[in-house]
Structures are given as C-alpha cells and as structure tokens.
C-alpha cells in the first residue's frame, strides 16, 4: 500500500512539473481594441557613418545598380518589409543640418563637418530631393527631423513650405526651379531631437517654449493643416520631460511626443556585437525589456493631461547598441547583428503592439550599417540581418486590430536573476486573418505554450520561425543566409487551442488561413 501511494505521489509530481512548464495564453477579440499602426514598424536613416553614404546612397555613377544614386537592392529589401516611414536626417545630426545646403546642383553645394559622427566631411550630395524621392519610390511616409538646436524658426518654416506648398510662395518657387513641380506633402515632422542632450542641452521647460514657437510657424500655409508634429521626447524613464511637454504645449500644436530608449548594458563598456557571453546577453535583454516599463510610465503621464488620447507616443529611436566592429571608425557605430538582435526586435515590437492604444509610431535605429541595422553592406554585397527577418515576419500586424493577450510568462533565469521568457502579441487583419507573434528569449530552455483562441473560429494556421544554433549566430557577407525565415509546422490546433514548443531564443509568427 505504501509503495502504491509513493508511486502515486511521484506520478502526481511529474504531472505537475509538466503542467507547470506549459504556459497558458488567452487571445481574445475586443471591439474597443486599437489598430496597431503600421508606423510602429518605422525606420531611421541618419547622416552617420555608412548609413547614407556608402550605404543607401552610392551615387548615380556607381557600378552598383541604383536608382537616382540609391542602391536598388536596398530599395527592394525595404519594399519587402513594407517600410511604412523613414526618419531622416538624424538623430544628433539633425540639429546641425542646414537643409538649404542640400538642394540645387550637387556640385555647387557647400560642405560641412559632421561633428557628431566621426568629424567627416559632409558634402551634402544627398539632400531633401534625394530623400523625398527615395520615400516616394519606397512607398514610405517621410519623417523629417528639423534643426531646432542650431537652426532658426524661419529655416524650419521655409523647409515645410519648400516640401509642402503647392505654388506661389518663395519656397515653392525655389523647389520648382530645382526640378520638382508638385509638393511632396510631408506629414511627419520632428521638432528637434534629444533636446536634453545633443539637440542643445536644454531643460524641458525651456524646450517646451521653443517647441511652441517652432510648431506655431510651421503651420504657416493652408496646405500644412495635416502636419503631424512630434516633440523631441525623453530618454528612458525621464518622466519629468514628458510631464512638462504635456502640461505646457496646447493640444492644437502637437500630435505626438517622442521617446528614445536603447538597450545598452553600460555606456562605458557596451560589450561586443557578436562574441558575447550569456551574461552580456541576459543584461542586454534586461535593458531591452525595460521598454515596457518606460512606455507604460510615459503613457501614464500622458493620460493625466490627455485622457482623450489625442496625443500619441512616438518611440522614434530604439534598438541594441554595442561596441563597434574592430577596425571601424568608432564614430560610425557599425555593429554586427545576431540572434540577440532578433530577440530585442521581436520582444520590443510585441511591447509596442500591446501598447498600440498610445504608441502610434516607432523607429528602429538604424536601417543600414548603423547600430541595430536591418541591412549591412560591403562594396556591392548586401546582407539582411536577423532583425530584418523579424520585421518581415511581423508585417502581418501592420494596421491590424490588436487582439489583447493574457498570460503569466515562465521565467528565464540566469545567475539568480529572472526575466519573463516569453512575449506575445496578436492581431486580426482587415482581411480577417488572426496573427500571433511569440518570442522566447530564454537562451537555454524551450517553453511549451497553449494558446486559447477563445471562440475565434480559427481552423487552420500557418507558421514561420526564426532560430539558430547559437545565440551569437549572425549572417555574414560569406554566409548571408545562415539565418533566414523557415516554415514552422510544429504546432497543433484543435478545438480552438493552439499548442507548440518554442525553441530557445526563437521568434515564431502564426497566421490563420481559410
Ligand atoms: O542613433 C544614434 C544616435 O543616438 C542619434 O543620433 C541620437 O539621437 C541618439 O543619441
């Protein structure tokens, strides 16, 4: 009898271990849930290192195939991830940029020193026309960050007039003389960048006044009614910055407040981009996941002043930031991109989706050859990074309606510290497909999940996965397809319950099909 009861206890314990390992997730439809703005999937191209020059832009005399000087392989790759918007020309560079130096005949354009990024000469060969024509080619909304720190209100207002005024104004006339008849109608305008730092080391109170002045004069013409003005936001948990802007700026002058947060383990020792330990990996993920706390914290402040939810939060810089690759210019911020970056991208985009009632825009830093890049180039070669592949898998969420999820994540434990191992977001597209993106950041353990699709009438699903053998794995110019999106079929869908095992450090996206 004693033997039987011990066997029973043993079996019961085994069973509870199995149950404890399975994470139950519920996904439900909510009529009041917001749409996930496609602009959360925005990108960023600064005049920094090899982002523009020797990145996007090789010039129209280059042997590398190009359209008006921009690499066609990059254009094709960005179209494939349905790039919704592109932020330009900075970053810190924006508050040094004189836009009038970047128009007119290229050979007559004055040069400047790019004082933030490597002290190199900027010859202004890539300017407003190049950028806006590129956006048109990509089908992406341009997002211009204007110079507030070292510019003037008039220069800023002139830039808006140059890009947006149809005819009859001095700037519209100048644009036409430079070969562009129709205005581009740029909607997204950043009023300065990091004004607490490289934008001019201002206090929030001082910037709030300056902001109002710039925002007022940008609305000079009839055609500018649809401007979307983004105030340069806080970094990390600087809630005071957001509080001051929300309190001081009238709603008639602002459409969004910015926020920047980089996953950096230590600004003085950022760690390598590829050859890192699990300790460094864990710390990077800890920093990346703080995005959830920061976004929630800034939203809480915004709620206080804007319970009507009329002003958006735009996380217009985010991503992983490591030491530069050996032998490269430290001012160029060139880093490789591994499965760690895929984890940061997948988990961060899930955070934005789940906060899409207020987060309407975000821009990963940066698109080509800088920081957490989606694309790396070397001469005529180009590779797509794990981060790129995550953006591709997540296109299903663009402008889809959020489906709220609820679950308790198992823990990813390392050296006595824990992080939530799993992150999830879900949406329903206008065409009716249900999409679920799951990320398991645990470097060691797989995690079993069961998703209850609460009466959603989902009968068939198809899946994709991004995974690799080692967390440090990455694509190289010699092995560009080491990490690519693969079909994922290891799931079971029965009676509205979807179950699967998420491999360690993997991203999975499932979509229903008819
Ligand atoms: O993305 C690189 C830099 O990081 C940007 O120029 C600046 O805004 C931020 O500090």
From TrEMBL:
Task: List UniProt keywords, sorted A-Z.
Answer: Carbohydrate metabolism, Glycosidase, Hydrolase, Signal
What is the annotated signal peptide range for this record? 1-20
The Gene Ontology terms for molecular function here are:
alpha-L-arabinofuranosidase activity
| Quaternary state and interactors | Homohexamer; trimer of dimers.
Similarity-based family: Belongs to the glycosyl hydrolase 51 family.
Source taxon at top rank: Bacteria
Q: GO:BP terms for this protein?
A: L-arabinose metabolic process; polysaccharide catabolic process
Name the SUPFAM superfamilies for this protein: (Trans)glycosidases, Glycosyl hydrolase domain
EC primary class: hydrolase
Which part of the chain is the Alpha-L-arabinofuranosidase C-terminal domain? 316-506
What name does the UniProt record give this protein? non-reducing end alpha-L-arabinofuranosidase
